[in-house]
Amino acid sequence: MPKANETVLEINLTALGDNFQYLKSKVKPSTKFMAVVKAYAYGSDSAEIAKKLEKLGVDYLAVAYVKEGVILRDVGIKTPIIVLHPQPINFETLIDRCLEPSLYNKNVLTRFIEVAKATKQRNYPVHLKFNTGLNRLGFGKNDVEFITTKLEETKSIIVKSVFSHLAASEDLSEKKFSEIQINSFENITKKLFKSLTNDPLKHMCNTSGILNYPEAHFDMVRSGIGLYGFGNSEKENKNLTPIATLKSIISQIHHIEKGESVGYNMAFKSEGVLKTATIPIGHADGISRTYGNGKGWITVNNKKAPIVGNVCMDMIMINVTDIDCKEGDEVIIFGENNRADTLAEKNNSISYELITAISQRVKRVFYRE
User: Fold this and answer.
1) Who is most buried in 290, 326, 327, 344, counting CB within 10 A?
2) 83 to each of 76, 90, 132, 239, 355, how far by Cα in Å?
3) Pick the CATH number of 244-367 from 3.30.379.10, 3.30.420.40, 2.40.37.10, 1.20.120.640
C-alpha cells in the first residue's frame, strides 16, 4: 500500500480470507459457518466485508439490528442473514428484506408470528435464542413448552436454528462454567427437538468457543472477532492477522520549551525541551479521551510515540523528541504490529471496543496482498 496522506483505515481482505480459513480448519467440513458482520463488521465496513465473506462461502451472516441487514441486502448480498436482536417495530421490514430473526422471549415470538401471519408468510425461517448463563437475551429452559405450543398453532414460521451464547469461552479459568452452559444447552435442545417436525441447526460457539470447545461445535459455529484478526489469547493471536490498520499523518511539528503546556486544560506541562507532532485524529474518530496523557501511543517510523496531554475532538499530540520525522510523515495508530488489543489493554479495555469505535468519517481503503 502507498503511504497514507490523510487519516485512513486500511482493510486487508486477504488477511480476512486467511483468518476465515484458519477458523474453518478448526471445525469439521460438515459444520456450517456463520460470520458476524454487525457494527460495520467490527468497525471496518459491513458491505465490503460481507461481499468477501459471501465469495468465501460462509453459510450465514449475522447482524445485530434490522437496519444493518437492510444495508447488506441493498448492496446485493444473497447469503442468509440472521438478525440477532430485532425489534418488533421492524418486523415488517425484516420480512420484506428476507432477513431471519432471532426470537428470544415470549413477547417477541408472539409478535413475530402475528406479523408473519398478517403478511401471509408460510414457513418463514426463524432462530430461537436460549439463555444458558450470559443473562443477556434468550428464552429460559422453562419456556420450551410455551414455544412448542406456539409453533404447533402456526404454519407461518419454521425454526431454522436453535442457539445460545457462551459467556466466557476465552477464559479457561471459567471452563467449568462454560461446560455447564454447554450441558444446559444440550438438555434444552433435546427437550425442544422432541416436539419439532423439522431438524434445526444447533450452534453455540463464538470465536473462542471454536478454538477452546470443539465438543460444542454442533451443526454450526459463529465467528466475529476472530475473522478480524483477534484470537483473545496470545497463543491464538499468532494464528490470526488483524485486517485493519489505522493510519494518519503528521500535520505539524512543534518545538516545546521547558514549562510550556500542550493541549486543552494544560494537561501536559513540559519539564524540558521537547518536540511534539499533531495528528489529525481524535475522540470524534474513536480514539477515546482516556488514551491521553501518555496512556496511549502511536508508532512513527517504527518507534513508539506517547500521546501528550488530552486527546482533542479531531487531533492528538504526540511526543516525537527522539524520533526522526517530519510534517507529512505517515503514522500508525494500530495495525498488524502495533495491535489494537495491546493498545486497548493499556486503557483497561479490549480490542472490540477500540476497533468498533472508529468513526465513519475515517476513510476506508480496501486492498489484497
Assistant:
1) 344
2) 17, 11, 20, 29, 21
3) 2.40.37.10
Is 124 a catalytic site residue?
no
Catalytic residue among 32, 106, 117, 264: 264
Count Cβ atoms within 10 A of the Cβ of residue 232 and give its class: 0-12 exposed, 13-18 middle, 19 or more buried.
Answer: buried
Listed in order, the ranges of the chain carrying CATH 3.20.20.10 are 31-228
Tell me, yes or no, if the pTM score tops 0.90: yes
Q: What percentage of the chain carries pLDDT values higher than 70?
A: 100
pLDDT tens per residue, range 56-95:
999 999 999 999 999 999 999 999 999 999 999 999 999 9
145-165: pLDDT as tens digits: 999 999 999 999 999 999 999
Q: Determine whether 160 is an active site residue.
A: no
CATH architecture, range 31-228 = Alpha-Beta Barrel (3.20)
Name the segment(s) of the chain with CATH classification 2.40.37.10.
244-367
- pLDDT tier, 1 (very low <50, low <70, confident <90, very high otherwise): confident
pLDDT of residue 369: 79
